[in-house]
From TrEMBL:
InterPro entries: DNA-bd_HTH_TetR-type_CS, Homeodomain-like_sf, HTH-type_TetR-like_transc_reg, HTH_TetR
HTH tetR-type domain location: 16-76
Protein name in the entry: TetR/AcrR family transcriptional regulator
Transmembrane portions of the chain: none
Organismal lineage: Bacteria, Bacillati, Actinomycetota, Actinomycetes, Kitasatosporales
Keyword Repeat in record: no
UniProt entry keywords in alphabetical sequence: DNA-binding
Organism (species): Streptomyces litmocidini
Tree of life domain: Bacteria
Keyword DNA-binding: yes
DNA-binding segment(s): 39-58
Length: 211
């Protein structure tokens, strides 16, 4: 007997494949709307399964969020660490390598950045603590990178380094948000754009008050 269209996909799909479908939809929903506004029912409808199936697989909304978060956090950390590792002298500057690594890691799932940087996570929850763990790890890498850049420029003020670390996080978030709104832009195109903007900003700041 033919399965009715409303039930299509609820059976006959291997669990691993179904879980990946659910995680892809959930990542997009959490990233676009935030944890608080996202419902398990909405995700179930998107995938074409029932709420009980999602609870069977992931236990709860928080369990589903954590299942989305961990791969994102691990992927971003691996990408940043690789970009910050030693490179040939003719390689792009570290900030551009990191941005390229972020764009590449997020390509195809750009909203994932906002799964990690979600201000609506319930305070004190496992979700908030786990996201903070990843954010702190990213901030630690950013602190190392920005302090190194400032030392190269002859500046060792720790407050300068802290301010630059926060500015860097804000810049990455703003660039990813812009990128989401421009889906035709590839990671390579975004990296080239950032290189142009960096060069323009350097010229503007160097010009001082004469412009």
């Amino acid at each position: 007997m033919t399965t009715p269209s409303s039930k299509a996909g609820t059976k006959g799909v291997p669990r691993a494949d179904r879980e990946q479908q659910i995680l892809a939809a959930a990542t997009e929903e959490f990233g676009r709307h935030g944890y608080e506004a996202t419902t398990v029912a909405t995700i179930a409808v998107r995938v074409g399964v029932t709420k009980p199936l999602l609870h069977q697989y992931f236990g709860s909304k928080q369990g589903l969020y954590l299942a989305c978060l961990d791969p994102i956090g691990d992927r971003l950390l691996d990408a940043i660490r690789t970009a910050m590792a030693g490179h040939d002298t003719d390689a792009p500057p570290t900030p551009l390598r990191v941005l390229n690594a972020l764009f590449t890691a997020l390509d195809g799932q750009r909203e994932a950045w906002f799964v990690l940087y979600d201000p609506t996570l319930p305070p004190g929850s496992d979700a908030a603590r786990r996201a903070a763990h990843y954010r702190n790890a990213v901030d630690g890498l950013a602190a190392t990178g920005t302090a190194e850049l400032l030392r190269t420029a002859g500046t060792t003020d720790p407050l300068d380094a802290d301010a630059l670390k926060h500015a860097w996080r804000g810049l990455c978030t703003a660039l990813v948000r812009w990128w989401i709104n421009h889906p035709d832009q590839s990671p390579e195109a975004m990296t080239r754009r950032c290189a142009r903007l960096t060069e323009a900003a350097r010229g503007i700041f160097a010009a001082g008050d004469d412009t």
